Structure formats: C-alpha cells, structure tokens
C-alpha cells in the first residue's frame, strides 16, 4: 500500500512538473494542441497540458553565424577565399517553427551560397574597396529570402579576403606603379606652376628695371648670411652689353 501511494505521488509530481513551464524574457513557446498550432506564449509562467499539448522553445536573441571560408572566383577570374559573419534573430516564432525545419542550418547554407553568388559578380578591386556596398547587397538578399521563415537579418560583415602569394605580389607591383605615376604627375604639375609664376615674375621685373637692382641686393644679403669666402661683384647687364659691342 505504501509503495503504491509513493508511485502515485511521483506520477503527480511528474505531471505537475510537465504542467508548468517558465520562459525567460528572450524565450517564446510555440504551442501545439493535438498537433495543430494553437498560439505563441511567453515569457514568464505558462501552463501546458501534458499528452494534449506540445511546446517548442524559440529564442529571440540575436544569433551570430560565422560563415566558413568560401572559394570565390571573381568576375575578372581571380580565385579568393572569403569568410564573413551574419547576425540574425527570430521575429516570428510561429513561422520559424512551422515554415522551416531548422532555421539555423537554413540561414547558414543560404548565407554561404549568397556570399559566393554576390562576390562572383564583382571584380577583385571592387571586393577590396567596396566592402560596405557588398555587405549591404548580401544582407538585402538574405533578408528577402528569410522573411518567409520569420527571420530578420540584422547585419552582414565580410571579415577577410585571402589572396594567394602571386596575386599579392601583382597587387603590390600595381600599387607601386600607381604611386610612381602619381609622383610624376605631381612633379609635372609643380613644374608647370613654377614656370607660370616665373613667367609672371619676369613680366613684372621687365616693367620695373629698378626691381632688378633690388633682387641683386636681396641675393647679396642671402649670400652674406652664410659663413663663406665667396666674393660677388654685381655688374649691370647694360654694362656687359656695351663691352660686347666694343
């Protein structure tokens, strides 16, 4: 008699244990009654009727999905390895349970294929220089496909683009040549500006012959500032011309 009463107490405790459930603030429970969807409950204390109702827990926190490195061939036929990270969360627990078997695995596979597809449409220079635009494009495509599953893609970030050694050397040579080209252009622009200023100065000095004498004096003053043994005898150009005529 004592054994049978103990069994009854244990059964009652197990029944009560399965009757009450506590959900955290970031959890929701998708309730099925006799296999049919009933409602979404939570957070807090909820009541589930054993054997009649079943519960599936869903977390609403943001999930960080690390996409493994993917082999991508760019539009200019360059092979690279790219990895990224995707941030997503469940916004509709009902659809996340009913519409898809495993939403985490589905988002993972979809992210890998979308990453290869989007990056394969761009050249290598665009991958390296326009990561923000590529992140936005990938996020938009993922968000459109996962909306039916009750999933919201919060952010996509391309973490790293790995190149082989030959391509790294080629890019370095290209960057060096580009810097050399810019240096030559800047030097040529400087020579052009200097020649223009010199032409303006010569034009102004030609109008005022006395300005030449001032330039002589300034030159002598600048030479005299240094400790040297240089002796300068300024001679007027007109005097030299007269000697040449004689």
Report on the architecture of this protein.
The chain is α+β, with helices and mostly antiparallel strands and 246 residues long. 53% of the residues lie in helices and 26% in strands. The protein has helices spanning 2-19, 93-98, 103-119, 124-129, 131-146, 165-207, 210-224, 237-245, and strands spanning 20-23, 27-33, 36-41, 44-47, 53-59, 63-73, 79-90, 151-162. The strands form 3 sheets. It has a 3-stranded antiparallel β-sheet with strand order 3-2-5. Strands 6-7-8 form a 3-stranded antiparallel β-sheet, with helices on one face. A hairpin with a 2-residue loop joins strand 2 and strand 3 (36-41). The protein is rod-shaped, with a radius of gyration of 40 Å. The termini are far apart.
Sheet/helix structural class:
alpha+beta
Q: Largest sheet, order of strands side by side?
A: 3-2-5
**What's the helix-strand series?**
HEEEEEEEHHHHEHHH
Alpha-carbon distance between the two ends: 150 Å
* Main sheet properties: 3 strands, antiparallel
Q: What percentage of the residues does DSSP assign to strands (E)?
A: 25-35%
**Coarse morphology:** rod-shaped
Return Rg in Å. 40 Å
Q: How would you summarize what this structure contains?
A:
The protein has 246 residues and is α+β, with helices and mostly antiparallel strands. The protein contains eight helices and eight strands, in the order αβββββββααααβααα.
List the helices and strands and how they pair.
Elements: H1 2-19, E1 20-23, E2 27-33, E3 36-41, E4 44-47, E5 53-59, E6 63-73, E7 79-90, H2 93-98, H3 103-119, H4 124-129, H5 131-146, E8 151-162, H6 165-207, H7 210-224, H8 237-245
Helix pairs in contact: 3-5
């Amino acid at each position: 008699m004592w054994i049978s009463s103990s069994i009854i107490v244990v059964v009652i405790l197990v029944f009560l244990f399965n009757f009450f459930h506590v959900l955290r603030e970031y959890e929701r429970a998708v309730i099925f009654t006799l296999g049919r969807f009933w409602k979404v409950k939570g957070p807090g204390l909820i009541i589930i009727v054993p054997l009649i109702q079943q519960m599936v827990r869903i977390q609403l926190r943001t999930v960080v999905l690390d996409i493994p490195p993917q082999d991508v061939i760019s539009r200019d036929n360059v092979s690279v390895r790219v990895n990224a990270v995707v941030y997503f969360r469940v916004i509709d627990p009902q659809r996340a349970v009913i519409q898809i078997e495993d939403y985490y695995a589905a988002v993972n596979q979809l992210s890998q294929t979308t990453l290869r597809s989007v990056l394969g449409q761009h050249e290598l220079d665009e991958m390296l220089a326009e990561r923000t635009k590529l992140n936005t494009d990938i996020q938009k495509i993922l968000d459109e496909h996962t909306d039916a599953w009750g999933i919201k893609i919060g952010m996509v970030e391309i973490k790293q683009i790995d190149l082989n050694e030959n391509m790294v050397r080629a890019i370095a040579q290209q960057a060096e040549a580009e810097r050399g080209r810019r240096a030559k252009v800047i030097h040529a622009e400087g020579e052009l500006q200097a020649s223009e200023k010199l032409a303006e100065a010569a034009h102004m000095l030609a109008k005022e012959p006395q300005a030449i004498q001032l330039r002589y004096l300034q030159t002598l003053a600048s030479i005299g500032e240094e400790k040297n043994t240089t002796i300068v005898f300024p001679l007027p150009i007109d005097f030299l011309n007269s000697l040449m005529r004689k």
